[in-house]
Task: inverse folding
């Protein structure tokens, strides 16, 4: 199994490839980053592909030879722009996108309202501007949900904490969101207030040692982040933790449901750290349940100054010689001082892809 952490600016876009138990190629895409993760324009106004665009173009070429090559599962963890923007750009630029998708997991407003028996807000739907066939001058508005349903890409299944799904020989144990968190999302869609999920200035001048000494935790209260789909992915005997932007208290609830706590820790090959390393989304209590030496940070540091050094210090203080890997490695020189690195308490490095065998 290969896991690629695409460059998605301040967002997440994770591409997983594997050969399943029937020797078929499988692709899973978790989120799509911001719009430029798929495509942007250079200084001359020419359209250029980002990492997601390149992956999709490569997939198209494989699909022309063998139609088994597609995104077998697309997981939209939540609707913040740094997770959905690249997908929307792809859908709106490429009228044939649905032919490359097997199925989609996402929690729509309408489905949440049906589950909770509560009316959704009028502005809950994600509207796409889809080209009408190949006529680039005609666009039709369609909701993300309607398009996914009419193209038979979505099973109208709400993804919630405590569920377990087996797909392509992989097991997904859902840690987030809880019913309470999706209900909050239904009550508050686009009217998100300024909240703890935004770091306005960086905390990089303070040493790791001082961050560990002065650490105080306050949990993220963003409703959108709290609705994130987070899960344990199991491949053979190996576990991988994908935390999207989920809240640590909800992740802990999910881990406890599946039998993990500080006395029976979850062993994971890596942890995709929640919310790009925000100090509000990783708690000591959560870290004490995890047995992992590798922590992935997906962020270029240009929006909200994430990751927070305080979050990284918390990981370093709670874990034994952790490896903190960045998909934008140039950040390390900005965050860590020489004295930080001389402490020999942690390692830093770059991550673009990781490979794993099924034991």
Result:
């Amino acid at each position: 199994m290969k896991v690629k952490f695409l460059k998605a600016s301040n967002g997440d876009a994770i591409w997983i490839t594997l050969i399943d138990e029937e020797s078929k190629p499988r692709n899973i895409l978790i989120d799509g980053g911001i719009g430029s993760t798929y495509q942007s324009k250079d200084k001359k106004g020419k359209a250029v592909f980002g990492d997601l665009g390149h992956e999709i173009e490569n997939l198209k070429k494989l699909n022309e030879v063998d139609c088994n090559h597609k995104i077998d599962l697309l997981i939209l963890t939540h609707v913040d722009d740094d997770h959905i923007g690249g997908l929307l750009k792809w859908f709106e630029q490429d009228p044939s996108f649905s032919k490359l998708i097997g199925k989609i997991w996402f929690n729509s407003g309408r489905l949440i309202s049906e589950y909770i028996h509560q009316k959704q807000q009028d502005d809950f739907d994600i509207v796409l501007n889809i080209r009408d066939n190949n006529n680039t001058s005609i666009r039709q508005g369609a909701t993300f949900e309607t398009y996914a349903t009419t193209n038979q890409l979505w099973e109208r299944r709400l993804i919630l904490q405590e569920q377990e799904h087996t797909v392509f020989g992989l097991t997904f144990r859902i840690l987030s969101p809880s019913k309470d968190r999706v209900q909050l999302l239904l009550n508050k869609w686009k009217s998100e207030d300024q909240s703890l999920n935004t770091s306005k200035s960086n905390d990089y001048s303070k040493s790791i040692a001082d961050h560990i000494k002065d650490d105080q935790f306050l949990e993220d209260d963003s409703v959108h982040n709290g609705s994130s789909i987070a899960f344990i992915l199991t491949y053979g005997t190996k576990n991988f933790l994908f935390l999207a932007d989920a809240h640590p208290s909800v992740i802990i609830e999910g881990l406890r449901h599946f039998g993990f706590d500080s006395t029976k820790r979850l062993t994971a090959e890596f942890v995709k750290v929640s919310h790009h390393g925000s100090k509000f989304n990783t708690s000591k209590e959560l870290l004490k349940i995890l047995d992992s030496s590798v922590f992935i940070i997906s962020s270029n540091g240009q929006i909200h100054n994430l990751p927070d050094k305080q979050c990284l210090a918390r990981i370093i203080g709670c874990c034994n010689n952790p490896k903190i890997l960045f998909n934008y490695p140039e950040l390390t020189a900005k965050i860590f001082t020489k004295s930080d690195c001389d402490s020999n308490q942690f390692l830093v490095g770059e991550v673009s892809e990781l490979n794993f065998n099924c034991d």
User: Anything to note?
Assistant: The two ends are 11 Å apart (CA to CA).
